[in-house]
Specification:
Elements (H helix, E strand, L loop, with lengths): L1 E9 L2 E11 L11 E8 L4 E3 L4 E2 L4 E5 L2 H7 L8 E10 L1 H7 L19 E5 L2 H15 L6 H16 L5 H9 L8 H7 L7 H7 L4 H12 L3 H19 L4 H7 L5 H12 L3 H9 L2
Antiparallel strand pairs: 1-2, 2-7, 3-6, 3-7, 4-5, 6-8
Helix pairs in contact: 3-4, 7-8, 9-11, 9-12
Length: 285
């Protein structure tokens, strides 16, 4: 159930949205934008996206490269009923180009490789907490809000995020919003081989629908995404077993396997031995 949903627009684009939900709910939440930055004002520490370990935890921030992903995630806690209240900043590429007059913001650098984390959660810094306290006050004084103020607030949060030293993943997403470099289908797929992405999310990163993504994948790789990705992950595990001292379970999770049992089954089907037997055969040489 949506308890509250208010927005503040800049140049006809929603810039800030304050949404409070009683969860879980089937009511759709509208967060239109290329990317969203959400600050959790209130929550019950329940999972919003379990595969990425993202929770409705007060004082945490979530940056998503897809506004639709954020909109689908916030209403659906994974454990019982709860409350989620969040202030969301919308990033529209068209609006960013207008605000910066086709220049780049300070501290921005061009991407060298595709973004591999489409959604990231982190603890909010004191500066970010103060920023959202200020945004909350804007909702209480809408009569005083001008486009000039909103432009300054947009530039402020972009500067804060581009200077984030605690999370390279956050700065990567922010840099991508201003990136002029385009990556090929294969570059995006190969960069995300070990990421726990659904095919829907991987398709979105390549700017394809799921059906067109599967067709393009088949055309390029001559196999299905599931078969190819699992094969490449298994090969990466084999390479790391030869070179790394990490535990087998750590290597498996690093390469995108959901559990040691899952890794062992897939690995043995490909190499005829378990991961531990494979590692032992190289340690004896």
């Amino acid at each position: 159930m949506i308890i509250e949903h208010r927005s503040i627009a800049l140049f006809d684009h929603p810039l800030f949205t304050w949404v409070t939900l009683r969860t879980p709910t089937e009511e759709p939440v509208s967060l239109p934008s290329e990317a969203c930055f959400a600050y959790i004002m209130d929550g019950d520490n329940q999972y919003l996206l379990e595969e990425e370990h993202i929770k409705a935890e007060p004082g945490k921030v979530i940056l998503s490269l897809c506004g639709n992903t954020m909109a689908q995630m916030l209403p659906r806690q994974r454990e019982g009923d709860g409350i989620v209240s969040s202030i969301v900043v919308h990033f529209h590429r068209e609006l960013l180009l207008k605000v910066y007059k086709n220049t780049k913001p300070p501290y921005w650098q061009e991407l060298e490789k595709p973004v591999v984390k489409y959604i990231v959660q982190a603890a909010a810094s004191e500066l970010v907490k103060q920023y959202f306290q200020g945004v909350a006050h804007l909702f209480d004084h809408l009569e005083a809000v001008t486009n000039e103020i909103l432009v300054l607030k947009l530039k402020e949060i972009i500067l804060l995020l581009l200077q984030t030293k605690e999370s390279e993943k956050i700065t990567q997403i922010m840099r991508s919003l201003f990136s002029e470099r385009t990556f090929t289908f294969k570059e995006i797929v190969e960069s995300n081989i070990c990421e726990p992405l659904s095919l829907e999310h991987l398709a979105a990163l390549t700017h394809h629908s799921l059906s067109s993504f599967k067709r393009e994948f088949k055309r390029i790789y001559d196999t299905s995404p599931g078969v190819y990705i699992m094969n490449r992950r298994t090969e990466k595990v084999a390479d790391l077993l030869k070179l790394s001292d990490k535990t087998i379970s750590s290597i498996g999770y690093e390469c995108g396997f959901s559990s040691p049992t899952h890794l062992s089954r897939i690995f043995k089907a490909k190499y005829g031995v378990t991961p531990s037997e494979f590692r032992l055969s190289f340690s004896d040489k």
